[in-house]
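Mods, move this if it's the wrong board.
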Amino acid sequence: MREAKGVFDEVRARTPRAETKLGDRGVETVVTPVSTLRERANAALDEVRPAIVRDGGDVWLIRIDGATAYVQLVGACGGCPMSNSTLRGAVETAILARCPELSRVEQL
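Not the wrong board. Structure tokens:
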């Protein structure tokens, strides 16, 4: 069953999404293009980045290999003893929520 679910998620990820917005010309339906896996992972990092930047660090997506995203915590976060907690508690949670086809996030 897991294989079928993975295929369904992959198809759903490629399906354009329609949003209804109120614009200058009234209500319009806008179809947004499907973003790539890398774009979705970076969007997830953009969600947690403000908190990391407030602590003097940053997070970069280095690469995605198979079902694993590799990130690098830089700045004050690079050598911080709490970096593993930040990685698992914020970065990994955000990426896996936006990218269900990924199963792990590792720090370089």
